[in-house]
Specification:
Blueprint (H helix, E strand, L loop, with lengths): L2 E6 L5 H10 L7 E8 L2 E8 L2 H10 L6 E7 L14 E2 L3 E9 L2 H10 L9 H14 L4 H11 L2 E9 L6 E6 L4 E4 L4 E4 L11 E4 L5 E4 L4 E4 L5 E2 L4 E2 L15 H7 L1 H10 L2 E2 L4 E2 L14 E5 L1 H18 L3 E5 H4 L11 E6 L5 H12 L3 E6 L5 H5 L2 E4 L12 H20 L5 H23 L2 H10 L4 E6 L4 H15 L2 E6 L16 E5 L4 H15 L3 E6 L10 E4 L8 H20 L17
Parallel strand pairs: 18-19, 18-20, 20-21, 21-22, 23-24, 23-25, 25-26, 26-27
Antiparallel strand pairs: 1-4, 1-10, 2-3, 2-4, 5-6, 6-7, 7-8, 8-12, 9-10, 9-11, 11-15, 12-13, 13-14, 16-17
């Protein structure tokens, strides 16, 4: 995840900003930059690569100012180049931004018609130029900032400097966290509490839709209705800690809410929305010549692999096996000549998966990995390394790591199909467009899921719960059951819906809730038929679907936004996470550290 620091200070801000960016390195980044007001004028330094490159640049060509903003960036729109690095500036404004601006193309075209040209590919540059345009039209800084925000759709955390305004810094958040730090005659913005750890311990966690106007002496916050509001001041004690929960009750809740941002950032590393294409990292083999793919993983990552089997076989027409890593070596697998073994692990250190990787590599297979840790053992040993860019995940039960794995696997599927000439250009563009829409759909679910909270209060008293789905939703049913049992300690199982009548239906009575995952489509008709069989036997059916016409047929329903068929698994992963989370909260279990579980499994 990208990192933000903003300082309205008493002395030169550059050393403090570099220190804050150093604390944010854990989030992952590919470029970094700072901008300051020097005698009222904006001065900037930015570099690709590690923070040391920026430090060297500032050392070789110093800048200084008591007002400054800084950023570490994971590339989303635009490659990790200097021209796409933050801060983005004009003569009047400097902007740093976390998130993704969904309507940047329309805004860019609008600016072009006005004779305003964007030099780079970044969505952030577009909103920087738009803000500058409003200032040039004569708007005052706050009015111009509000006008720009009103034109933007997507997820963002923003910090803004304006030339000639040494006592002003502006910020806003929607779908991406932003924290205000309160000092003694100083004010700060940070992407999280860690960024501000050495600067202040008095924090205000901005809420969704908030806009902030900072001066050295006060922080004014306007809510999404443009009403001046007071927000709670929190006290942080994380000077030696890595992560803070912010205003969330649990790390898991925070990480669920980070998904629009991290999925967007992950997709941004692979998708080119301007061309409708996908670029994978370099590899020493050709995807066009792959004869077979074997996906290997554990736990939640295994369910991501099951989803990918459906995707790859349907869209790329390559035969796929899926194996649990701890079983893989012991079944003496028969490898196909020219096959690719793809290993999925959040940490990149999972012992069973790493051992399986080495087994396949010794057998002469092409080896790829999907990991969230760039310097992990698996990343070092694979020929193809695809990073998920989910950022640190503190909650033991995986949420954002899972959806980012799905995002990478979806991108891989399209790239594979194109390379094998089974996905045509127009189809590739359509699939890329679907993937681009996923963060917005996730945001919609997270902004309105009260029915799930009500359901969870009732589910908390159950002893057994079943999740069912058909086709590509079957693995999501498995993941839902895993999440629920991990967090709430309620026995839960996931089934293919058509399998119920082959035994599990014997478990059904009025005390067994059944959660049916059935997005609208031809296959959903069969799932609904299976659910009606359960209801006929007094089963307590809860439907998760975008088919509002079915909302009254069962005892409970959560109506989903309509998603493209390709990205349905990515979108439907969110409600099953929420069901598990709120059920565990209702039961009072330890959500972040469930009993007997660890975040990384580094022994067999």
């Amino acid at each position: 995840m990208c990192g933000i620091i903003g300082i309205l200070g008493k002395t030169d801000t550059v050393p403090a900003m570099l220190g804050a960016l150093k604390r944010l390195e854990y989030r992952g980044y590919d470029s970094a930059g700072v901008a300051v007001l020097d005698d009222g004028q904006i001065k900037r330094r930015r570099e690709i690569g590690k923070l040391q490159a920026l430090m060297n640049s500032v050392g070789d060509d110093p800048i200084a100012g008591t007002s400054g903003i800084g950023h570490t960036r994971w590339a989303t729109h635009g490659e990790p180049t200097t021209k796409n690095a933050h801060p983005h500036i004009t003569s009047r404004v400097a902007v740093v931004h976390n998130g993704i601006i969904e309507n940047f193309r329309d805004l860019r075209d609008e600016l072009k018609n006005l004779g305003i040209i964007c030099e780079g590919e970044s969505d952030t540059e577009v909103i920087t130029k738009l803000l500058d345009h409003y200032l040039q039209d004569g708007m005052d800084p706050v009015t111009a900032f509000k006008a720009m925000i009103s034109r933007v759709t997507g997820a963002y955390a923003l910090a803004v400097l304006m030339s000639g305004e040494k006592d002003l810094m502006l910020g806003a958040r929607r779908g991406s966290p932003l924290v205000i730090g309160l000092g003694d005659g100083e004010m700060f913005f940070g992407s999280d509490a860690l960024a501000l750890a050495d600067l202040t311990n008095r924090l205000i966690y901005m809420e969704e839709g908030d806009l902030a106007v900072l001066s050295h002496s006060k922080a004014e916050i306007y809510d999404k209705n443009d009403t001046l509001v007071q927000r709670k001041i929190s006290f942080s004690h994380i000077s030696g800690a890595l992560i803070d929960r912010g205003n969330h009750r649990h790390f898991m809740q925070k990480e669920i809410y980070e998904q629009p941002t991290v999925v967007a950032q992950t997709l941004g590393r692979y998708l080119n929305p301007n061309t409708g294409t996908i670029a994978l990292p370099a590899m020493d083999f050709s995807l066009a010549n792959i004869s077979k793919i074997t996906l290997v993983a554990c736990g939640t990552s295994y369910y991501a692999a099951l989803v990918a089997k459906y995707w790859i076989e349907q869209y790329a027409h390559v035969s796929v096996d899926v194996d649990i890593a701890s079983e893989f070596r012991y079944r003496n697998p028969v490898y196909a000549q020219g096959g690719l073994c793809l290993f999925i692990s959040q940490s990149g250190e999972t012992a069973d998966t790493l051992a399986a990787l080495r087994h396949a590599k010794d057998a002469g297979q092409h080896v790829g990995v999907i990991v969230n840790a760039a310097e992990s053992s698996m990343a070092r040993e694979a020929a193809l390394v695809m990073h998920t860019h989910a950022g640190p995940e503190i909650g033991v039960a995986s949420t954002k790591a899972f959806t980012c794995q799905l995002a990478v696997l979806a991108a891989f599927t399209v790239a594979l199909g194109v390379e094998r000439s089974v996905i045509e250009t127009s189809r590739s563009r359509a699939l890329v467009a679907e993937l681009e829409s996923a963060p917005t759909l996730i945001s919609k679910i997270l902004s309105d899921h009260d029915p799930i909270i009500s359901m969870a209060d009732k589910l908390a008293s159950a002893r057994d719960i079943l999740f069912v789905g058909r086709g590509i939703q079957y693995p999501i049913a498995l993941e839902g059951a895993l999440k629920l049992k991990e967090l709430s300690y309620i026995h839960a199982e996931g089934y293919a819906a058509g399998e119920l009548k082959h035994g599990p239906i014997a478990l059904i009575d009025e005390h067994v809730p059944v959660i049916g995952i059935a997005p609208k489509g031809e296959i959903s008709k069969k799932t609904i038929s299976n659910l009606q069989e359960i209801a006929a036997r007094k089963g307590n059916v809860i439907l998760v679907s975008d088919d509002i016409s079915l909302s009254t047929e069962f005892k409970g329903a959560f109506i989903m936004p309509t998603a493209g068929q390709f990205i349905e698994p990515l979108v439907y992963a969110i409600p099953v996470q929420l069901i598990a989370y709120y059920t565990a909260v209702a039961k009072g279990t330890d959500v972040d550290q469930p009993r007997n579980l660890a975040k990384a499994v580094t022994v067999e």
